[in-house]
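Run log, item B.
One chain of 498 residues. Sequence copied directly from the ordering sheet:
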Amino acid sequence: MHLLAAATAAPTPTGSTPQLIIAALVGIAVIVLLITWLKVHPFLSLLIGAVGVGIAAGLAPGDAITSFGNGFGSTMTSVGILIGLGAMFGKLLSDSGGADRIVDTLVSRASARSLPWVMALIGALIGLPMFFEVGLVLMIPVIVLVARRSGVPLMRIAIPALAGLSTMHALVPPHPGPLLAVSTVGADLGLTLALGVLVAIPTVIVAGPLFSKLAARWVDIPVPDLFVSRGEGAATASGSAGSTSRGGAGTVTEERATTTTGTGTGAGASDADPGRRPSFAIALVGILLPVVLMLARSVREAAAPDASGPAVSLLEFLGTPVVALTIAVLFAMVFYARGGGMDRAAVSKTLGASLPDIAGILLIVGAGGGFKQVLIDTGIGTVIGDAVRESGVSVLLVAWLVAALVRIATGSATVATVTAAGIMAPLAADLSGVETSLLVLAIGAGSVFLSHVNDAGFWLIKEYLRTTVGQNVKTWSVMECILSVTGLAGVMLIDVFV
């Protein structure tokens, strides 16, 4: 299914080729400077840059505004609903204790040697339905407590978990970046999700458990003095917490119950019964339900495109992204709430609290769609696409490079994604369905390259793990680079065989 069909006919360029290229370059530079130097919000920066590009490229001012509005509206129609549903589901998973159940179940069955692999799996599972920042807040207490209890170096625990979270954020819908790229280039969401998971598996392994061995050698620091239970206070104060032997699952669970409240996991969490949580099976089914429905639809379309009948129609309906995510939210409202001891008032409060936090994301995503539409209506995207075709350079590599450069300049993965997707959209019409999905993944991989001092996530992780700037660069920043390059390698490898 295409969330938003690619343009079927190239628009007439509104100016000469040099004028269009200069307008695009200056517009992108203005967006970057507004975000990085003047600290203007990305939504306003994209609005100013998009309208400026349209006018500079030859559109009348009124037409530039109209073009931006059309792109904003179509993007919010196709993507905004999915982001809202994803936020609701993630909040219910968090506040009901479902996320804690998944974490504690997996950690309790792991040996010290297998912990980095388990943490990577936990990061990926938690990251699948949640935004990166929400998943990070949930994971930090687990990272700290597991490292303290196990005696395993902090980076052996932290890096795999962060790799799982970041990879899912970059490559797998329903995260805003991949969703917007799918919408912009007209890719199939189910196919993109399947290929994203396929690329994500080796990417998490390389950037997570494998790289964490080097990260632990480069940066050997004590476990932060965070989330300390009353019984551990004296030991931590005397500096012995880092060498404490690993306790059982019950110890970790007890500490999480006394410390998670302070991590900002959600307003609705306090309304649930702290002694109740959904079962591991229920929590996992809720996460995988929309994935299975969307994948089933894509598999049916690929295996039997001409099939018809009531069963096919039902599968087509259930696999529609909006329907699949709505079903997941309804499932969570019933089974997560019941397992977590949440009444109807608590569920209502959780759903309401899930939406304000994504308001800024929705505006940025919508503005990215508006910027994309201006690039299309002026013919700039077509000119850039023709230049890429004539250069002989792989479209996937160019998409990754554009996203990586914008990411380095702005520090925002979302801005990098919307900018690269808008530029590369005209090329998608010439690609097959699989190649279009790979284009989305190449953009996603490039959008997380080299997180550094202009990225809010860089400082968030630095403060949580209590590293210096240099130590954070050698661990988190290098991990993001490895993740980005490995993701690109996976995309290019799949492209060889399709």
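Observations after the first pass:
- Residues 1-9, 229-270 have pLDDT under 50 and may be disordered.
- Residues 83-357 form one domain.
Flagged for discussion on Thursday.
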